[in-house]
Design a protein that fits this description.
By secondary structure, this protein is an alpha/beta fold. Helix content is 45%, strand content 15%. It contains nine helices and seven strands. Helix 1 (18-35) packs parallel to helix 3 (66-79), helix 1 (18-35) crosses helix 8 and helix 6 packs antiparallel against helix 8 (203-218). The longest helix is centred in the first third of the chain and has 18 residues, at 18-35. It is globular and about 55 Å long. The structure holds S-adenosylmethionine. Residues 11, 25, 28-29, 32, 60-64, 66-67, 89-91, 116-118, 131-133, 136 line the site of S-adenosylmethionine (SAM). The site of S-adenosylmethionine (SAM) has 22 residues, from helix 1 and helix 3.
């Protein structure tokens, strides 16, 4: 599938209740961290950190923190260096951020004020990452996120936990309902709202199925991503994009950029 369709996602709507958004992000964090979906990108993160002025990752659009959580420990194990990770989001999910902070004994911190990925405050200078969220941005916004990092000469890594295939859409529609039925009681932090809006009024599974399907349709392919970077007039900054295979056969689309 090469074309990009930018349909609406519930989680992007400003009137969409935070309670449902947070429950959906908790599911995403659970799924991503259980499968260790981002493990194959550790070498790419190492490459970015090597080009960063400090061993610091500023994760943008963190949602429930699912993307970066497993990676922090892998990075420390493989580099034998401490790596500071800070979670941030335009709609910060504080209970989930607190949980990640607690589970990592404070190795992952968070910013409790909203941080907009299209306008990152100048004092946040760490290497930037965006996991499974870049497809939320229309091309102009997407370009300005990449351009901002390039102009400030900080490395940036864009990672999407899917490869943009029809199989993934089928999986979102067929497997998500079953998975929700089984895993909901085990999701953390525990919320009564999750039980209510899964088993009695199934808004969480339905909205997640819709958003999951639309996310695949919205994904930028590696070619789209490189095309976006063509209009960023910054010298001595390099870009690379591609797909990496996870042990389950799933693919991860990535774009990395850093000063040279
Ligand atoms: C699909 S979720 C992210 C998933 C998360 N990174 C993960 O790996 O589990 C997308 C997130 O992007 C956030 N978001 C949307 N627009 C944003 C913006 N302009 N700046 C920062 N965050 C934004 C949403 O609040 C949501 O939490």
């Amino acid at each position: 599938m090469t074309k990009r369709y930018h349909l609406f996602e519930f989680e992007d709507l400003s009137w969409f209740p935070d309670l449902l958004r947070q429950n959906m992000m908790d599911f995403l964090r659970f799924a991503i961290s259980k499968l260790g979906i981002y493990e194959p990108i550790v070498p790419l993160l190492q490459e970015l950190l090597a080009r960063s002025s400090q061993p610091e990752i500023l994760d943008l659009c963190s949602g429930g923190g699912g993307g970066i959580k497993g990676l922090q420990q892998l990075l420390v194990n493989q580099t034998q260096q401490s790596v500071t990770v800070t979670l941030s989001d335009k709609f910060p999910n504080i209970p989930a951020f607190e949980l990640v902070k607690k589970e990592t004994s404070g190795a992952i911190k968070y910013i409790s004020q909203p941080v907009d990925a299209t306008n990152v405050p100048a004092d946040l200078t760490g290497c930037r990452t965006i996991f499974s969220a870049f497809h939320h941005f229309q091309p102009d916004m997407a370009r300005s996120i990449l351009g901002d990092a390039a102009r400030k000469r900080v490395p940036i890594g864009i990672f999407e936990g899917a490869g943009k295939s029809y199989f993934e859409i089928l999986a979102a529609l067929l497997f998500f309902p079953l998975v929700f039925l089984v895993i909901t009681p085990f999701l953390r932090p525990f919320r009564w709202s999750r039980i209510f809006f899964t088993y009695l009024v199934p808004l969480i599974p339905l909205c997640t199925m819709w958003d999951g399907t639309v996310s695949i349709l919205r994904l930028y392919t590696p070619q789209h991503l490189l095309q976006l970077t063509k209009d960023i007039p910054v010298d001595n900054y390099t870009w690379r994009a591609g797909k990496i295979k996870h042990k389950t056969g799933l693919k991860i689309i990535y774009l990395i950029g850093y000063p040279v």
